[in-house]
Specification:
Length: 677
């Protein structure tokens, strides 16, 4: 597309004014970065980014991630101008109730937004996952006679992203793997909320990324020829991700506030806006888009449609030549589990007594065989989390290979995230957002603290990430309180739209995996909390079916005669001690109903009649879980008893701790007797 320098400037200035007008109308927001990065974004979107606004879900589109989500008006302006379904009226409702233009971009809420970005660094790290997913799909499905996946992932990040630790973690792994399809602009404007960047940061970011293995360029971020040249060179990289360090002026175009922190996170103000319009000979009309600018983007939309139609034709030819691969590709895109996945996983795990982490390992072997789109790994803890896929290759560093052949370095299923828990969570999300895979990442439960941001983003985005956390309680033993999670269960349960499973035996472990894969209640992330110590197989009453576990709570053992004096609720490794305690209580004539609660969220979602049937009115209730007790009071009512661990653990063998901390059958029974008086 041949555009004059004058029209190019007008196109970039249109982005600047739309962003500034949106923030001014809302009297809230961040105009500085959109105004400073407008030239970078315009060249990228108008000349390099491959997309079709009429088919925003086209699988082989390039992805664009605005890592600094506070600069959302930049993305909204681009989506509107490029012809995506984001009318100008939505830009006028920036940050308002019910609009499609919230303060930070939200995946699934606004068309064309590839991921929810807010916490700095999350967008950058998730983009690594997107690029990895593209490489892995290409390795599986591209053929010498046909390339169906070659999408690039582009992004813009800023000084704030570069200071976040998750960016360093993800950049290190991206460089190690050689993700040549990942290209990021570093919008280096030297300004943060507190003022000039040099009050807190002074390193040479380019040299840091070169050390990670990235291809680094330095440009003037307002020179369109330099931007174009840098993108052209970046696209030629095959085994190195690219960082383009672009020096820009924050708030470029603002008469008195450009280059200052005043333009970072506040409206320009009427006087500044008026002078800016005068300086650029811009009409007084707000949200003005010149006709010539509209034509530029209309042409770009038509080009995108042609690219997508050409891909459609290629895929049909691919389907004729490789029907089995085409069918498998569509299976990857749908991520639909077999109808009998629950039964198959239950059979694969079997009735053996073992640690739930080990039984989860059995479920993984079967699940990945049934669902070829399921992949995953651990943060250097696979021997402990039991999350390796046996017989499958690992994803390794990119190989220098012929352009006509897929790189089999990415054909594996086992992911090695390294000791990078935060990046693991974000990369897991990014791979799922790209499409074609469901992904799990694993570490110890106590280290979920490092992953809270990506877990929360997965829940907010309603994507089916699977987070596996083992070593779930004081039973870790000799490693001591630093490795014994106490508050983590309820901390995670407090995240909305997240389903947490703490299975008590092999059947519940298999059901938790089946639920995470089958997703019978819609798209959302799942967390599996697993033990290191062995768990016995639970007894279950007549009429029980494995699908009853999906209800989140069910009766494991009914009181004699069906009329309990006491209801005991327990999870995970505490279900068997609760059964033991109730057997002791029975000798004193106390009839107890024992309920296993593998998933609090699923139980709360059941009809009231079901919940009332399990927890009958007027019957005293006890909860037993080796963690903080606060969350259980919603079920216990007045006069209930919450048995848990409202203190840190200690260093000693697990069996000793169980006795000292009161989680054996006899100690639980004694506690309940004392409470009953």
């Amino acid at each position: 597309m041949d555009i004059s320098p004058e029209l190019r400037a007008q196109c970039a200035n249109t982005i600047r004014f739309l962003a500034a007008d949106g923030v001014e109308a809302a009297q809230s927001g961040h105009p500085g970065t959109p105004m400073g990065a407008a030239d970078l974004a315009f060249v990228l979107w108008s000349e390099f980014l491959r997309f079709d606004p009429a088919r925003p879900d086209w699988v082989n589109r390039d992805r664009f991630v605005l890592s600094g989500g506070h600069a959302s008006m930049l993305l909204y302006s681009l989506l509107h101008l490029s012809g995506h379904d984001l009318p100008l009226d939505e830009l006028k409702k920036f940050r308002q109730w019910g609009s499609k233009t919230p303060g930070h971009p939200e995946y699934g809420h606004t068309v064309g937004v590839e991921m929810t970005t807010g916490p700095l660094g999350a967008g950058f790290a998730s983009s690594v996952g997107m690029a990895l997913a593209s490489k892995m799909l290409a390795a599986r499905f591209n053929q010498p006679d046909e390339t169906i996946i070659d999408a690039h992932v582009y992004g813009i990040c800023g000084d704030g992203d570069m200071q976040e630790g998750v960016t360093a973690e993800a950049a290190s792994l991206a460089g190690h793997l050689g993700l040549g399809n990942l290209v990021f602009f570093y919008d280096c404007n030297g300004i943060t909320i507190e003022g000039h960047l040099d009050v807190a940061m002074g390193e040479d970011v380019g040299r840091r990324f070169e050390a990670y293995g990235w291809y680094v360029q330095h440009i003037d971020g307002h020179d369109h020829d330099s931007i174009r040249a840098a993108l052209t060179l970046a696209r030629k990289q095959t085994t190195r991700p690219s960082l383009i360090v672009a020096t820009t002026v924050i708030g470029k175009g603002a008469p008195t506030k450009s280059g200052t922190h005043e333009v970072h996170g506040a409206p320009l103000g009427k006087a500044e806006m008026a002078q800016m319009r005068k300086n650029f000979s811009w009409p007084d009309e707000t949200f003005h888009v010149p006709v010539a600018v509209r034509e530029v983007w209309k042409t770009r939309g038509a080009e995108g449609k042609k690219m997508r139609e050409a891909w459609d034709w290629r895929f049909e030819a691919y389907r004729q030549k490789h029907p089995d691969l085409a069918k498998l590709f569509e299976t990857h895109m749908a991520r639909k589990a077999p109808a009998d996945v629950l039964d198959q996983l239950v059979a694969a795990v079997g009735p053996k007594a073992d640690a739930s982490r080990s039984m989860s390992g059995l479920a993984i072997q079967k699940a990945t065989a049934l669902c070829p789109w399921l992949v995953g790994g651990a943060a250097d803890l696979e021997p402990s989390t039991k999350t390796g896929i046996k017989g499958a290759a690992s994803v390794v560093r990119a190989k220098v290979s012929s352009d006509e052949l897929p790189d089999d370095a990415f054909a594996g299923k086992n992911l090695h995230f390294g000791i990078r828990e935060h990046a693991m969570g974000s990369i897991t999300n990014g791979m799922i957002l790209f499409g074609g895979f469901q992904v799990y990442g694993a570490t110890f439960l106590v280290f979920s603290d490092y992953m809270r941001a990506p877990i929360r983003l997965a829940a907010l985005s309603k994507i089916p990430s699977i987070f596996i956390f083992t070593h779930d309680s004081f039973w870790v033993g000799e490693d001591g309180p630093t490795h014994q999670p106490i508050e983590h269960l309820w901390s995670l349960r407090m995240i909305s739209d997240l389903t947490l499973w703490r299975p008590a035996d092999g059947l519940e472990t298999a059901a938790a995996w089946a639920y995470a894969i089958e997703r019978p209640d819609g798209e959302h992330p799942s967390v599996l909390i697993l033990t290191r110590q062995k768990l016995p197989t639970l007894p279950r009453p007549a009429g029980f079916t494995a699908r009853d576990v999906y209800k989140g709570a069910y009766i494991v053992q009914e009181a004699e005669g069906g009329k309990p004096d006491l209801v005991v609720m327990a999870t995970g490794s505490e279900v068997q001690p609760a059964l033991d305690a109730c057997a002791i209580l029975a000798k004193d004539g106390i009839k107890s109903r024992v309920i296993s609660v593998p998933c609090v969220e699923r139980f709360k979602a059941q009809p009231k009649a079901y919940r009332d049937a399990l927890l009958p009115a007027g019957v005293k209730r006890v909860s037993v879980e080796a963690g903080r007790t606060e969350g259980w009071w919603q079920f216990l009512g007045d006069g209930g008893l919450a048995i848990g661990l409202d203190r840190f653990g200690a260093s000693a063998p697990g069996e000793v701790l169980a006795d000292k901390l009161g989680f054996t059958g006899p100690t639980l029974a004694a506690r309940i007797k004392e409470w009953r008086g």
